[in-house]
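Predicting holo structure, flavin mononucleotide bound.
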Amino acid sequence: MSQEPDLSVKIANLILKSPVMNASGTFDLIYEPSYSANGLGAFIPKSVALHEHHGEQAASIFEAEGSLFNAATFLSDGIDFFEKQVMPDYTIDELPLIINISGETADEFASVVERLEKHDTIKALELNLSCPNLDDNGEMFGLLSETTYSLVSKVRSVTDKPLIAKLSPNVTRIQEITLAAEQGGANAFTMANAFQAMSIDIETRKPKLGKVAGSLSGGAIRPLIVYLIFQVNQVSHLPIIGSGGVLSGHDAIEMILAGASAVQVGTANVLNPAAMIKITNEIRDYLIAHKIPSISDLIGQVDLS
Ligand SMILES: Cc1cc2nc3c(=O)[nH]c(=O)nc-3n(C[C@H](O)[C@H](O)[C@H](O)COP(=O)(O)O)c2cc1C
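Done. Tokens:
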């Protein structure tokens, strides 16, 4: 095949030039000028919440084999700061801007979305369902179908922008939760956020992170995420963005075969800020080597025969 393969994919009403984008909180375009606008499918800044959150600053710990333990996922400078200081820097022609939103009540999410509605440069909203729901018992919104539905439908009622539900992997009934998000008005899914996990220092006998559990991301979670993507794809026709342990182009292809239309790269960026360029090149090389004209030809094409 002499022609360049077609890397474009469709997520809701967006045509992305590449299936590779960063995962929220792991990469900042401002500090990585080597990325041209065309090198990525989309850019997603760190979660923005209504108010400032500077609470949990416990140390991040690198684990073996491209995995990362961290306790710093729910931090934000708040929507005021974000709109005035951050948004202008992120408005880049040709690169779709997707804003990831955090909150501790459904009303907080809706308030942030209402504030962002006027910005035409924002092409889609990603809801971080791994946030604690303080209207309930403080458990993550994404653990139950009911809280997933009520959050997504609340946000749906205040915006026409495409909504991407970033699901939690810490669940047993992912298909029910997927359908609840779809019924609430989601247009796509990100599968998934990091896993809750624990690590203990056997000398001090204390948890290695400041609190009991932390977030585990990177290579260690990839097979778990691949199976979750597969299960989501079984029950919904909405596009899925795979997130969890994509360290190479082959990892991305694996997720796409399981049913993802695109992938997010998180931990790999923390380990190597040029990771997304390498991953994109490896996807292209795979398509050329296998004479596949378009990445879309591979979505959900795992062979179960
Ligand atoms: C340091 C760090 C910060 C993160 N911050 C956020 C965040 O602000 N919002 C969010 O939805 N996910 C956040 N995540 C989760 C990632 O976006 C991603 O979904 C997860 O790490 C799984 O992908 P990975 O294995 O490629 O890292 C963060 C992850 C890490 C490692």
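The chain has one domain: 9-298.
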